[in-house]
């Protein structure tokens, strides 16, 4: 059996978690980029969304996670019953998540679907891989918002496409690896080619933001339609 060794050390994150909504059952937050969702095993990776929030909301638990480099909306349960109810919504795929992203290059099509199974490979950790034999089904939809050129400090023009991404499944690194599969990795993605485009090397962060989260409040049964503007 392959042993997975995670050598990643997260740099300090000085940005604060923005609490957008709270009641006695759940908390809705905007996670800053560069903050782990859960603390790592390495003692240098203790700072995380959960570690910070449990100081304010004792007993709170994460219902889902965002990658370290991803910013945006997360819902956090304040007790076990609410966590179970929300996890059920996620597992039944009744929760809708929408992301905003900048992709390298200009996409040809205005919208489409990426249907490619994703597998873990301990030998490649932390990368995931596309594998139709061993992978779990994964499906994402994309829609182009705009195509444009970003002028660099040296006057070079960087071709970018702003897209809206809607994952229909929730695999690890799904949007990042699916965009790479599309031939247009997410700008700033160090794992899946988002720094390879000439001029993209110094991108300060992963250009991926969880901009919408739609679910049913497990207690009031009210439909929650949360939106947070993309910061880039």
Automatic annotation (TrEMBL):
<dbReference type="InterPro" id="IPR006224">
    <property type="entry name" value="PsdUridine_synth_RluA-like_CS"/>
</dbReference>
<dbReference type="InterPro" id="IPR020103">
    <property type="entry name" value="PsdUridine_synth_cat_dom_sf"/>
</dbReference>
<comment type="similarity">
    <text>Belongs to the pseudouridine synthase RluA family.</text>
</comment>
<dbReference type="InterPro" id="IPR050188">
    <property type="entry name" value="RluA_PseudoU_synthase"/>
</dbReference>
<protein>
    <submittedName>
        <fullName>tRNA pseudouridine32 synthase/23S rRNA pseudouridine746 synthase</fullName>
        <ecNumber>5.4.99.28</ecNumber>
        <ecNumber>5.4.99.29</ecNumber>
    </submittedName>
</protein>
<dbReference type="GO" id="GO:0160151">
    <property type="term" value="F:tRNA pseudouridine(32) synthase activity"/>
</dbReference>
<dbReference type="Pfam" id="PF00849">
    <property type="entry name" value="PseudoU_synth_2"/>
</dbReference>
<keyword id="KW-0413">Isomerase</keyword>
<dbReference type="GO" id="GO:0160142">
    <property type="term" value="F:23S rRNA pseudouridine(746) synthase activity"/>
</dbReference>
<feature type="domain" description="Pseudouridine synthase RsuA/RluA-like">
    <location>
        <begin position="25"/>
        <end position="181"/>
    </location>
</feature>
<dbReference type="InterPro" id="IPR006145">
    <property type="entry name" value="PsdUridine_synth_RsuA/RluA"/>
</dbReference>
């Amino acid at each position: 059996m392959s042993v997975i060794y995670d050598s990643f050390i997260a740099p300090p994150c000085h940005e604060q978690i923005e609490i957008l909504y709270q009641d006695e059952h759940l908390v809705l937050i905007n996670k800053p980029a560069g903050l782990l969702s859960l603390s790592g095993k390495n003692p240098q990776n203790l700072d995380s969304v959960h570690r910070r929030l449990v100081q304010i909301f004792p007993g709170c638990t994460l219902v889902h996670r965002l990658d370290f480099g991803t910013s945006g909306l997360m819902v956090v349960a304040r007790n076990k019953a609410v966590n179970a109810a929300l996890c059920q919504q996620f597992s039944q795929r009744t929760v809708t998540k929408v992301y905003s992203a900048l992709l390298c290059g200009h996409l040809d099509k205005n919208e489409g679907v990426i249907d490619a199974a994703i597998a873990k490979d301990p030998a490649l950790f932390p990368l995931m891989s596309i594998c139709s034999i061993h992978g779990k089904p994964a499906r994402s939809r994309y829609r182009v918002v705009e195509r444009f050129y970003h002028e660099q400090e040296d006057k070079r023009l960087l071709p970018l496409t702003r897209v809206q991404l809607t994952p229909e499944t929730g695999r690890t690194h799904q949007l990042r690896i699916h965009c790479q599969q599309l031939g247009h990795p997410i700008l700033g993605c160090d794992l899946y080619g988002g720094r390879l485009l000439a001029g993209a090397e110094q991108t300060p962060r992963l250009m991926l933001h969880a901009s919408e989260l739609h679910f049913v409040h497990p207690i009031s049964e009210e439909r929650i339609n949360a939106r947070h503007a993309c910061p880039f």
